[in-house]
Amino acid sequence: MAALDDAPAMALPVVEHALEFSLGCERIPGLVWTPAQREGPLPTVLIGHGRGMDKRRGYVEAVARRMVRELGWVTVALDAPGHGERRDPAAGPDEIPPKPDPDQMRTEWQACVDVLARERVVDVGALGYWGISMGAGMGIALLAEEPRIRCAALGLMHTRYYERILADAARITCPLLFSLHWDDSRVPRQEAFDLFDTFGSADKRLHAYPGDHSDFTDEEMAALQRFLADRLGR
Amino acid sequence: MAALDDAPAMALPVVEHALEFSLGCERIPGLVWTPAQREGPLPTVLIGHGRGMDKRRGYVEAVARRMVRELGWVTVALDAPGHGERRDPAAGPDEIPPKPDPDQMRTEWQACVDVLARERVVDVGALGYWGISMGAGMGIALLAEEPRIRCAALGLMHTRYYERILADAARITCPLLFSLHWDDSRVPRQEAFDLFDTFGSADKRLHAYPGDHSDFTDEEMAALQRFLADRLGR
Questions:
Q1: How far apart are CA A46 and CA A129, in angstroms?
Q2: How far apart are CA B44 and CA B126, in angstroms?
Q3: Half-sphere exposure of A157 (CA within 13 A, CB side)
Q4: Which of A104, A108, A230, B232 has its CA 20 to 30 A from that of B111?
Q5: Does A182 touch chain B (CB under 8 A)?
Q6: C-alpha distances in Å from residue A100, one per residue of A139, A142, B29
Q7: Which DSSP letter does residue A188 get?
Q8: What is the per-residue pLDDT across B215-224, written as a single tens digit (0 to 9) for each?
């Protein structure tokens, strides 16, 4: 009992599940992380990965597992079109995949939520989105049309990422944290401010941290998670 | 024992102490809040009040008591020159006092720290500063010349508040959180960004929240406190 008492209060064991569903002729692979012990649907965070990453690579798995471990929720990541298992077989190993079509990605996320709600994994009444860089771009297209998502942690995105990004941003109304890096060489600061200004959400906040595009700190990652936890927590 | 176990872990009783010290012919009144039970010097946060407020009025007492209650630290507020007990007796009751001289205010804060360190109330190895609006302006002048202050939570300030504010901001090197309100009618957004950009601290972050100058939320106040807690906590 002493050992148990000394353990962090919320360090839950995490189980990874392979996910696969079809949309038209497209087979979409993903991963779902859940607490080892669970009953019924749980609050769920969809994690959009960055360009050239996939459902596991880079920070994705770390972010996903941390939320399950510390919050006891479900997290989900998909391979975006052209990424991970869906890479063009003709592409070289170091080739960065093309940017996915945000409309296609949105449709895939929506189908994914339908599947996981039907299987009673996801509580669609407590659904959040987490995405930075390309994950934010794809998230903005999704959030603009998906009222089931109740809150979002986004960042490292600008006003020209895809054609209708400002129109989509203006349609988003859920509570939102937007994060940026002060010296981001890929996201001009003023364009990040303009995007934040455009979000339709009355309940929004911006965090800016020093550093270039990829300079994440644990503080930033913790703030993104805490924001979703405060909003989705029941 | 059951009642104790059910109580929030860190809801400590708070004691308020009157403070008074002299600097030249000037008598400076302040307040010190401490946990009811304490031994020896504690981490301490200096709280700079806003224009027209004083050592107790507005958010000052609430912010001060919350830090003591939740962190078990010491907090201190002074009446700035021309404010509180130091108001011009000829001024009308609704008259807003003139902006204090930042050099005078800095000297008073430094004397205050000396006094409280000598009385073994303040641990000068764990000293932070909290100030928004005029409290940030006065804080910038203090932080530029006071290496004993290890971290600062500032906000709602622009580049023209006093003559040397940008030069002072550039000399600040401690970890710093700077907060702004996106639609602040008294602090032009771009000038708040420029001020943030000027701070010499490598370890700095900016939080922006919707609303006008006085539109604080509990989220913002909690973030300012948490930042100091993370940096000064031992």
A1: 5
A2: 6
A3: 33
A4: B232
A5: yes
A6: 12, 13, 63
A7: -
A8: 999 999 999 9
Count other C-beta atoms under 10 Å from residue A166's C-beta. 17
Can you read off the two tokens belonging to residue B51? 């224009």
Which of A207, B53, A178 lies closest to A169 in space, CA to CA? A178
Distance between B144 CA and the closest CA of chain A, angstroms: 20
Residue A172: which pLDDT band, with cuts at 50, 70 and 90?
Answer: very high
Token code pair at residue A84: 């991970």
Within 13 Å, how many C-alpha atoms sit on residue A20's CB side?
6
ipTM: 0.89
Asked if A204 is an interface residue toward chain B (Cβ–Cβ < 8 A), one would say yes
CA distance A209 to B66: 27
**CB-based contact B187:B214 (threshold 8 Å):** no
**CA–CA separation, B129 vs B146, rounded Å?**
11
Taking the alpha carbons of B194, B195, B199, B205 in that order, is the dihedral positive or negative? negative
CA dihedral in degrees (A173, A174, A175, A176; nearest 10)?
Answer: -80
Q: What is the Cα–Cα distance from A178 to A52, expressed in whole angstroms?
A: 22
Return the percentage of chain A with pLDDT > 70, whole number. Answer: 95
CA distance, residue B173 to nearest chain A CA (Å): 14
For the record, the structure tokens of B186 come out as 């008294």
Contact between A113 and A122 (Cβ < 8 Å): yes
Q: From the CB of residue A160, how many other CB atoms can be counted at a distance below 10 Å?
A: 11
Please say whether the beta carbons of B168 and A165 come within 8 A: no
**Min Cα–Cα distance to chain A from B210, Å:** 7
The pTM of this model reads: 0.92
- Chain A hits for B189, CB-CB cut-off 8 Å, are 193
Of B204, B150, B154, B145, the C-alpha closest to B180 is B154
**Residues B210, A205: C-beta atoms closer than 8 Å:** yes
DSSP bridge partners of A206:
A178, B208
